[in-house]
Design goal:
There is one protein chain. This protein has three domains: 50 residues; 182 residues, P-loop containing nucleotide triphosphate hydrolases (Rossmann fold), CATH 3.40.50; 84 residues, Helicase, Ruva Protein, domain 3, CATH 1.10.8.60. The protein has a five-stranded parallel β-sheet with strand order 2-3-6-1-7, with helices on both faces. A two-stranded antiparallel ribbon has the order 4-5. Strands 8-9 form a two-stranded parallel ribbon. The protein is of the alpha/beta class and 338 residues long. The chain is built from 14 helices and nine strands. 47% of the residues lie in helices and 11% in strands.
Length: 338
Amino acid sequence: MDSAQAKLEELRGKISQSNLSAEVSERLINLLKFPPSGVEFERLVSYIDFVCALPFNKYSQDILDLGRAKEILDRDHYGLQSVKDRILEYLSVLILHKQKGGTFHTPILAFIGLVGTGKTTLASSIAESLGRPLIRIPFGGLGEAATLRGQSRVKADAEPGQIIKGIQKIKVSNPVILLDEIDRVAEEERIDIMGVLVELLDPEQNHSFLDHYLDFPYDLSQVLFITTANNSTNIATAVLDRLEPIQMPSYSDEEKLVIGRDYLLPKILTETGLDKDAINIDEAIWPQIIRPLGFDAGIRSLQRNLQAICRKIARKMVEGEKGPFKIDNQNLGEYLGV
């Protein structure tokens, strides 16, 4: 048996051992009846390997514990009580449907707000509370619908879309998929991309989502989709009809102080390898760390400033200086580079 024939037998064995439907198995077997040669054969092998690795009918077990979800939301996010309450209501409906063995088809949560107000991390908290893996697909500057839907295999450089690639990677068919910043797609492709979004977010359509690379429908009905946007102006009406917008409030300086001191700083200290007692920030200078350049609705500037401070302290320690390091009005400029 030559190597090509051996490879064909290996592929047939892989198909028969995979958790594929009869229709998909037959489709793949038929492709092997008159296999191409050379580069085309290598592409066929890659295609079959990809399909066989898809998690058909494989689902993670949901954690249906509302108390746990509340603890995770409170742990990860300070304030935002109205937003948290809406998420807990959403999860409550999901839990009731699951307990009754029903199907969960409520509008898709859409967190709308300025940069740094916590939209993306809320999606992460929801995924963790349910015990589902999270797939984040950034839409900022997305230039073509094929990035989501895949490319036909007649193209030499064809590949699956990000939706199907993400599902194959995390190996379950019911992840949380975060469609991040759906208002920021390239204007020239907006109509086509919004058309794909309608299909993804519509329960009447997403049970048979067609990725052009696969060339057969894949069931996305058990996926929990979440979307974010800076504003809703550039989102198509047909997409908005399938969303439940939740407006993200801006943080006050008082809230940012608590977030910076009790949430961000401990996390950043750990990320930079510093002990919690390595730094002592004078309470009087927090306003300058919070808003060095004026108003900022989110916490991105605050986070970057704390990261800059901690990086400089890490360097000082590696160079032999001893802590703890006190940050006050006299030396803040040194740490922030202003």
